[in-house]
Amino acid sequence: MIDFHTHPVLIREFTEKYPNYVRVAREVFNIGNNFQPLETFFLQMDAAGIEKAVLLPIACGRARKDPVSSNEQVAELCGMSDRFIGFASVDPMAPNAPKELESAIARLGLKGLKLDAALQDFDLNDPAVFAVYEAAASLRIPVLIHTGMSWAPETPLERGQPLLLEKAIRRFPKLQFVLAHWGWPWVWDATALALKYPNVFLDTSCLYYDGPTEFFQFVFSKQIPTTLIERSLRNQVVFGSNYPRVEIKNMVKALKSLSLTEGCLEKIFRANAERLLGMGQ
Amino acid sequence: MIIKLERVKVQSRKSEEAINITPKVDDIVEKSGVKNGVVNVMTCHTSSGLLVTEGIPCLEEDILTHFSRLFPEEEDYHHRRYLDFDGRMGFNADSHLKSILGGIQCMFPIENGKIVRGSRQTIYFMEYDGPLERVYLVQVLGE
Which of A20, A155, A195, B41 is deepest in the core (most CB within 10 A)? Predict the structure, then answer.
């Protein structure tokens, strides 16, 4: 199984090596849990039955002084274990952003692009962002974009509205967009985009109240019907936990609590992610 | 009077686990230089515990199983909400309640440089919310 949405922000080994790592975790990403040895990350994956995890950096240096994990830090972690799959992040407002993305993919071996318009403070429909999409399309890598609400401070909700992405989704039909957090609270907007556009994927890293199972039972069976996932979106959903904001095992359990068939769960937990990442090709 | 405090790291490897720390505590006491006194052991976390019972696997399993029966994971807990100071959801009320029920500390006398405890008594670090690296304290007091 693959976890498509994790953030390496609490790695103990990085706290001494990178001077701003602790400040970023506490003040920019906003997480108060103890820093843990890298071993804990793997044990959390093991406890959840997860084999591989996508590590997401956020290039928010312009807006927040430092990135939430740099591309180099993600590549460093990927070099330590083949259980990690690293994504790159660039600031679309930087003039050299497309080149920087190309470099991160070629030089660091990263496999996708992560963007967060709220934390990185940019307009999703700025022409500069489209230049980055153009580069990602040329590189044939997926783009995972934060949608919905963010727990990080100074992140306006309006920047997370899924429909802001429609123009880009239409402009780049061969570029695969992964809408993180299923766009919550705009769950129907994100769902509609995935129903309408085959190049839109949704990740399940969605938890904003109650416990994971209660939340999933409401959002994915009462708010939108489970049958919609099973019948219409089974090829466009990937499992994501948002670890360490949530323990991976709890999100796995929550997803498995839905009335989805084994075949559908296999796609969500593995096959769709492998297809997005070009694994086995 | 000697007072020595040691912080011991322990890596839990499962969601819930009973980890026998008796040899470690014995070792700290013996190396402390205290001949007569007491040793206090305490976990530093509110979702883990410290308890004493007979050191056999069936009891380890029973404790964890029946604590989970008393405090099921899926229950109507007020703790299931966003915790702004942690930047994340709190949904481990069951772990906290198990910690309260089982306790977080224990104390033994020291005589002639060794812990005095019953032959069946085993000290366990109890993980209720793992896997995580945890810390427990061993404080030796005496002369």
Answer: B41
